[in-house]
Write a structure and sequence with these properties.
386 residues, mainly alpha, 17 helices
């Protein structure tokens, strides 16, 4: 019997390693960030916000047909445990969808429909939640905490100092071609900083807790497992991962109404995409109707319309609500830090741990040890999102 269990485990680990090798080649954010944002922004402004940008993207450096073939020829029928076999089947379907997204980056509706299949789109209730948030007054823009202060080089020093609270090493590099102001590349354990951005005190407080406190923590926890699914990510993990990251901002006392409204504007922007709005029309909705300054409006519109329509940005708000409710129910957050996991699969993760196929979280998000939020309006908003 012991030999039979060993053979089954060996089979599982072989399949898992093969999928891991494939997934390492297909990190979506490597391909969907435009390489000419600044040039196109200048032209867009010059056109009085009427001519849509013509973004260019990095070239795909893998054979899409071979990678699809390798996904679907994995012998998952040899995994005897039905629960684990079903999980791996869902993993293969999910990552095949990611490949379809990458192979259609820059192809308009083709990419949008693939994005829709991978990430979904806001419900009417999600949009109502976003509009509810927008009714609240945000912090004063003149507060020094929101003023640009740190160069990317200075920001790197702050990240490195913050990172000392965790016993792991990671890389930091700068990039001038990214839609975000900072992001973690999971496959290379790298924090990437936007070399064109000057960071405020509040942004640094948010980003250290968000990028290092969650995204890098789950990256490193994922690497501690023999099963690589924890590192490359369970299906539809974006919602949970981003929810955990924004929740870390909340728990550390750094989440602001201004930041929450930014997440709400992303929902509005993705909803406009779903309605068929062009880049310029989404921008004008944010800038003219919602009175967002043009830099913020352009940034959010670019995030949502890149590739042809990337819908994932609405998931930050839905993910935050899910994680907040999970925490308020007294449930264990550490199981959601075991890697790039999904709240939906919390019971499956525990099942893998109980079978000796996974480990409990080695690193725990620092901010989760104590709720330092003192903003009662934030609590009211999060309690009343539907």
């Amino acid at each position: 019997m012991k030999n039979g269990v060993k053979v089954e485990k060996d089979t599982l680990f072989k399949i898992d390693r093969r999928i891991d090798k494939l997934v390492k080649k297909i990190e979506l954010l490597r391909y969907v960030n435009p390489v000419n944002i600044e040039e196109e922004k200048a032209l867009f402004y010059k056109s009085k916000y009427l001519t849509d940008p013509n973004f260019r993207y990095p070239e795909m450096d893998f054979d899409k047909f071979k990678i699809h073939q390798k996904f679907f020829t994995q012998p998952i029928e040899l995994i005897e445990d039905e629960r684990i076999r079903n999980l791996y089947e869902e993993i293969i379907y999910y990552y095949s969808g990611v490949v379809r997204c990458i192979e259609t980056v820059g192809e308009g509706k083709k990419f949008y429909y693939n994005s829709l299949q991978s990430f979904g789109t806001p419900t009417e209730q999600d949009v109502e939640n976003a509009k509810f948030i927008l009714h609240f007054e945000e912090e004063d823009d003149n507060d020094p905490a929101f003023a640009p202060k740190y160069s990317p080089q200075e920001a790197e020093g702050i990240f490195r100092e913050y990172g000392k609270r965790y016993d792991f090493d990671y890389n930091i590099k700068e990039s001038s071609v990214m839609g975000a102001i900072a992001m973690v590349l999971n496959s290379s354990q790298t924090l990437v900083l936007n070399s064109r951005h000057e960071y405020s005190e509040n942004e640094m407080a948010i980003l250290t807790n968000h990028e290092i406190g969650v995204h890098m923590v789950t990256t490193m926890n994922g690497l501690s497992h023999k099963l690589k699914i924890f590192s490359h990510g369970l299906p539809n993990n974006v919602e949970t991962q981003e929810g955990l990251a924004v929740f870390s901002e909340y728990m550390s006392g750094n989440l602001t109404i201004k930041r929450l409204k930014e997440l709400a504007y992303r929902v509005i922007a993705v909803n406009s995409l779903a309605k068929g709005y062009s880049f310029s029309r989404t921008f004008r909705l944010l800038h003219n109707f919602y009175d967002l300054d043009r830099e913020k409006a352009f940034h959010i519109t670019t995030r949502v319309h890149r590739g042809g329509g990337l819908t994932k940005d609405y998931l930050y708000l839905t993910g935050l609500k899910q994680v907040y409710d999970y925490y308020k129910a007294g449930k264990d957050l550490s199981i959601l830090l075991t890697g790039k996991v999904t709240l939906k699969y919390a019971d499956d993760i525990q099942y893998l741990i109980d079978k000796g196929l996974a480990l409990n979280s080695k690193f725990i998000t620092d901010s989760y040890s104590e709720n330092k939020n003192t903003n009662k309006t934030l609590d009211f908003i999060l309690d009343n999102l539907k």
